[in-house]
Amino acid sequence: MADRMRHEQASPAVQKRVQDSFDLQGLMSHLGAWINHIGPGRVHIVLPARPAVTQQHGYIHAGAVSAVADSAGGCAALTLFDEESEVLTVEYEINLLAPAADDHLEAIGTVLKPGRTLTVCRLEANGLQTDGVRELVANGQQALIRVNRTAG
Hints:
- The protein is α+β, with helices and mostly antiparallel strands and 152 residues long.
- Helices cover 27% and strands 40% of the residues.
- It is built from four helices and six strands.
- A hairpin with a 2-residue loop joins strand 1 (34-39) and strand 2 (42-48).
- The longest helix has 17 residues, at 62-78.
- It is globular.
- The N and C termini lie far apart (37 Å).
- The model has no long low-confidence stretch (mean pLDDT 94).
């Protein structure tokens, strides 16, 4: 099932709702991140390496890594809820496993346990080189709460 989930696409309506929600996140726009996969319970977000997202040693900053991973998990949870629902992060823990010294970062959020109120997601961030080499640079877990969409 995990392999099927890795490649399955969400419906066009769900993809649009998740993309619209993502587009409202000013931080993701500021970082230069974009979504490159939306599937049921799984979202991939790409962050290109550039000076504006690095720390003093030239690696992608841990804050940027964790922000993109957090967003990937939130978007993954959103794929499983109805259009009247939104999600907010309750908590997350991220383990930084290696410096993100790659051409770009791909954060993947995967729903582990959906719930009516709380949903738990696995977070991972992989550094990717242009030659296709992939390295796990961070992993973690997140809890999200489902909330009703606010009028706006």
